[in-house]
Amino acid sequence: MIVVADSSPLIFLAKVERLGLLKSLYGDRIAIPAQVKMELTRPKIESDDAYALARFIDEISVVPVPRPKKFGAALSVADNATLTLAVRKGAERLLVDERLMRRIASAKGIPVTGTIGILYAASRGGILSREEAAGDLRRLVRSCGLRISVAVYDAAMAAFSDEG
Q1: Residue 79: helix, strand or coil by DSSP?
Q2: Could you tell me which of 24, 58, 59, 96 has the fewest CB atoms within 10 Å of its CB?
Q3: Domains and CATH numbers, the chain
Q4: Residues 4, 82: contact at Cβ < 8 Å?
Q5: Strand order across the 93-95 sheet
Q6: Rounded CA gap, 11 and 108, in Å?
Q7: What is the largest CA-CA distance in the chain?
Q8: 0.85 cut: is pTM over it?
Q9: Alpha-carbon gap, residue 57 to 73, rounded angstroms
């Protein structure tokens, strides 16, 4: 079984220097479509993040996804390729933040986890402390562009506090 990743969790984890969490949580089962690799290696990515992402991409499986299914007009080619790969391979999990992609994957029976869920799983698994995970979330929201509702932020911070 594979774990398919979209670009957003990878970019956000790179911003807080936590891409290694994915290897700790999912081992060698991580795959991305070639279309996501193209997104992650575009010039718009900040240089520090680009270097970390390039190293990470070298350690995971990049899968060609010919003729991705079009799941929605609002989705990019990379988004459609990500969903197509997850469906075609029967992924055990899809790492994705975008709400529409999460809904489609869930409707197809594919469990989803976003950036916050990855931080939570790492803290539950003892890979990160609760304080580290909460600090990473704060940083992602305050200075890295992670956009979530106040309710989701508060729930995540409470979950990090309630671990034990």
Answers
A1: helix
A2: 58
A3: 3-115 (3.40.50.1010)
A4: yes
A5: 61-63, 30-33, 3-5, 93-95, 112-113
A6: 25
A7: 46
A8: yes
A9: 27
